[in-house]
Each structure stands twice: as structure tokens, then as C-alpha cells.
């Protein structure tokens, strides 16, 4: 039979452990570029399955997130769609020192839900057999800047101005195509590729030589046990396999 005082001590000890676990659990706010949102949701789910911490993803354009961070937005980490904004945060001392790293290399694709719309070489852009082409805003979104560079190299940037519909970010550009507001669009490969599934519709994978590399970097903005745990998990082999499954290259795999 357990002595009452011993039982009381055990209950107090158990309560302390439970309370300690509760106060140590954190909810992290993660700013993420629209193109990487679906991939990060998958990785966040994996992380939460093995951690007491929770993640809240705030999806938007890299340019807007950068401006919000400059103005003091309470994010714990920032997953950008380029390397320029993380580099600027590094130079300005607005990130955890030595936390900046390249997590993915993005791929641009010309895509349509119509299986007959886009040919394998992207000649549809020159033929002009469409009314609307969706792109992300080149001033805000790295994928929009890559789309502009592609069209400029083909001599089509000015010619297609009247047919372009611009999304604030690559997520909005993708929705224009998915909803039928535009017949085709220059989107992120990650938006149309899912692990183990065929890509729906028709698409042209744009050669990387036709635009500057879409090197995507991330930074920690606040150093806590929870943010460091997620930072470490994100660089695990499991997370890298998920990133590759969504159509991205990774620094160690190309």
C-alpha cells in the first residue's frame, strides 16, 4: 500500500512534469512564400507528429513578408522564394546570426489544366493561341521575375502585355489558371507536382538557363528551443525528400 505522503509527492511531481511540458510547448509563426506553402505544410505535419510544438504558416509574397519583417512582424522564421531578401535581413542584423541557408531551388513551368494547350517545348507562347497568360508580379515575386526574364529572352515581354494577368504572388497566379481566368500561366513546378502523382493538364518545364536561378533561402528570426528544433528538423533527410518530391532541387541534390 502506498503511503499517503508518498502518493502526494508523486502527484506533485507528475503535475510539475505536465506543467513543464505545457509551458515549454510553443507555437511558431512561419512566414512562407506562396510557392512553398504546400510543401511546408507537409513538413510541418511531420514535425508536429514528433514534437509538442505547433506551427502557424503565414503565406504571402516574399516582398511583402520582407517589408513586414522590417516593420517588426512577429515571425519566428522566414522561408523566402529568393536569396536576396534573406541576404538583406542578414546584412541588416534582423535575423539569428548564421541561420541563413538555401533550402530549395525552384523550377518554373508553363502550365494549363487543358491537356492539349501547352506543347512540350512551350511554343504556344510564340503562337499566341490563348487569351490570357498568368504570371506573378515581377516586382514582388521571384517566380514573376523569372517569368519576365523568360519572356524577354523570347522577345515576347512587350508583345504579351495586353494578355497578362498578374497575381500578387505565385499562389494567386496559379489560382488564375486553375479557376479558368487564364488559359495558361507561368507557375512553380511545385504547385502542379505532387509526390507519386502525374502532373495534370499539360506543361512545359522551363529550362533553368532561361532565367536566373530561383535559389530559395530561409532564416531564423527568433532563437528559441522550438525554432531551433524546427530549423534542425527541416534540414533532415526526411524533410529534404519531401522537398524533392514536390519538384524542387535541393543544394545537395541539384
Report what the structure shows.
There is one protein chain. This protein has 10 helices and 10 strands. It has 2 domains: 4-105 and 214-245, Periplasmic binding protein-like II (D-Maltodextrin-Binding Protein, domain 2); 106-210, D-Maltodextrin-Binding Protein, domain 2 (3-Layer(aba) Sandwich). A 5-stranded mixed β-sheet has the order 2-1-3-10-4, with helices on both faces. The protein has a 5-stranded mixed β-sheet with strand order 7-6-8-5-9. The protein is globular and about 60 Å long. The chain is an alpha/beta fold and 254 residues long. Helices cover 39% and strands 20% of the residues. InterPro entries: AvModA-like_subst-bd, ModA, ModA/WtpA. Molybdate binds at residues 62, 170. Keywords: Metal-binding, Molybdenum, Signal.
Jot down its keywords.
five-stranded mixed sheet, alpha/beta, D-Maltodextrin-Binding Protein, domain 2, 254 residues, Molybdate-binding periplasmic protein, 10 strands, ModA/WtpA
The CATH architecture of the largest domain can be given as 3-Layer(aba) Sandwich
Q: Low-confidence spans: pLDDT under 50, at least 5 residues? A: 14-23
Judging from the principal axes of the Cα atoms, what is the shape? globular
The named CATH superfamily of the largest domain: Periplasmic binding protein-like II
Series of secondary-structure elements, N-terminal to C-terminal: HEHEHEHEEHEHEHEHEEHH
Q: How is the CATH topology of the largest domain named?
A: D-Maltodextrin-Binding Protein, domain 2
What's the level 1 CATH class of the largest domain?
Alpha Beta
Helix proportion of residues, in percent?
25-40%
Question: Could you give the count of β-strands?
Answer: 10
Instruction: State the secondary-structure class.
Output: alpha/beta
- Biggest sheet: strands side by side, in what order? 2-1-3-10-4
Q: Structurally, how many domains make up the residues?
A: 2
State mean pLDDT (0 to 100 scale).
Answer: 91
Mind telling me the C-alpha Rg? 22 Å
N-end to C-end Cα span: 64 Å
| SS summary, helix count | 10
Q: Characterize the largest beta sheet: strand count, sense, and whether it forms a barrel.
A: 5 strands, mixed
Strand content: 15-25%
Amino acid at each position: 500500500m502506498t503511503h499517503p505522503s508518498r502518493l502526494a509527492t508523486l502527484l506533485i511531481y507528475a503535475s510539475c512534469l505536465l506543467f513543464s511540458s505545457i509551458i515549454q510547448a510553443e507555437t511558431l509563426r512561419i512566414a512562407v512564400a506562396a510557392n512553398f506553402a504546400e510543401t511546408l505544410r507537409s513538413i510541418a505535419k511531420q514535425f508536429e507528429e514528433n514534437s509538442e510544438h505547433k506551427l502557424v504558416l503565414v503565406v504571402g509574397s516574399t516582398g511583402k513578408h520582407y517589408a513586414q519583417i522590417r516593420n517588426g512582424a512577429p515571425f519566428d522564421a522566414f522561408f523566402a522564394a529568393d536569396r536576396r531578401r534573406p541576404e538583406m535581413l542578414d546584412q541588416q542584423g534582423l535575423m539569428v546570426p548564421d541561420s541563413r541557408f538555401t533550402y530549395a531551388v525552384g523550377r518554373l513551368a508553363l502550365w494549363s489544366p487543358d491537356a492539349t494547350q501547352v506543347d512540350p517545348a512551350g511554343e504556344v507562347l510564340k503562337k499566341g493561341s490563348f487569351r490570357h497568360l498568368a504570371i506573378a508580379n515581377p516586382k514582388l515575386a521571384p517566380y514573376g521575375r523569372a517569368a519576365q526574364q523568360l519572356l524577354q529572352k523570347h522577345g515576347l515581354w512587350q508583345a504579351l502585355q495586353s494578355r497578362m494577368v498578374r497575381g500578387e504572388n505565385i499562389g494567386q497566379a496559379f489560382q488564375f489558371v486553375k479557376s479558368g481566368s487564364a488559359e495558361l500561366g507561368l507557375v512553380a513546378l511545385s504547385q502542379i507536382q505532387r509526390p507519386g502523382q502525374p502532373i495534370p493538364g499539360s506543361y512545359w518545364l522551363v529550362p533553368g538557363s532561361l532565367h536566373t536561378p530561383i535559389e530559395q533561402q530561409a532564416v531564423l528570426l527568433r532563437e528559441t528551443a522550438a525554432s531551433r528544433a524546427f530549423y534542425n528538423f527541416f534540414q533532415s533527410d526526411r524533410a529534404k525528400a519531401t522537398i524533392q518530391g514536390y519538384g524542387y532541387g535541393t543544394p545537395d541534390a541539384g
